[in-house]
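Can't paste images in this forum, so I'm doing it all in text. The chain is below; anyone willing to post the predicted structure tokens underneath?
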Amino acid sequence: MSDDAKFMARALELAQEAAEQGEVPVGAVLVRNGVIIGQGYNAPISSNDPTAHAEIVALRDAARRFANYRLPGSTLYVTLEPCTMCIGAIVHARVERLVFATREPRAGVVCSQGNELDRSFYNHKVVWEEGPLAQESAELLQSFFKARR
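Text version of the structure:
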């Protein structure tokens, strides 16, 4: 199993934890030098915090550990393509690389809606790719929403 698949598998475990708590099942893991330095899952409902997306929770976790809001040299693994808010946080945290499992056709802004990371006005460039465990992530999301309808 590649490192990307290994870290995405952990993010998928976190997404499952979110689902078990009634949150949209999205998980995120921040890695630097092969070590998880931050992790989280969606928790806006349980935390009464509209910014508690998995990516933000993972970035906050790492920032607290290192007492620094900048996290250069890191890779963020997330089970769903990030939204506008999360892309802003990823850029500001100076994350080097973003890897997401599956696209979010309505609100994902990496490649589904807007291509935000390709904008020339950002003062930091984030390399991105998609695909590890895409099917598993999509199935978890689909089963979560199907059960709620």
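Helices lie at 3-20, 44-47, 54-66, 84-92, 134-148. The first strand starts at residue 27 and ends at 32.
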